[in-house]
Amino acid sequence: MMRHSACIVLLLLLVFLPALAQGPPAVSQAHAQFLQKLVAAAVERTHHVVRYDSAYVRIPFPNGDVPAETGVCTDEVIRAYRAVGVDLQKEVHEDMVGNFAAYPNQRRWLLAHTDTNIDHRRVPNLMTFFARKGEMLTTSTQDADYAPGDLVTWDLGGNVPHIGIVVDRKSARTGRFLVVHNIGRGPQMEDVLFNWKITGHYRYFGTR
Q: What class, spelled out in words, does domain 30-203 have in CATH?
């Protein structure tokens, strides 16, 4: 009986341990190249001086942007993607026009229509978009589950959302991949992956 139980335990370990040990899902060569460019664009953003400013600004459409010297956390994601040919302003708007009820605009901000000036600059809208059009990944607290090019969202507390991009540089202290984000001091590359409650983890390669 004991030998039979031991065999069952061994079988379960053989089945489940590989799944527990595996990191982020593998990507194709084309997608890997895209993420490499996205990461380079995100790292490049850390060389810019940006004053944190969450003011509502009217901007062109498509390819609109707030003044280069200002921005919030979402603007760093938007600018990194735009550097590799993906216009999140346009893509979020197009998906929202046909699927407005899927987005939190109405229930969170009491809005009855889209707004190309601000929709793509709101973290909850980006979370919905990436979940719909990209890949939703685990929100674990395991370093190995996060890879360069991944998008991570957090709750800073009090339901205040935040977003950043995981890059290919690692912390000398923890060995963790660093994150490019703007939490108030302009675009920074820091070891903050687990500093706040993770609310979303995505990968997005654009619609091409």
A: alpha beta
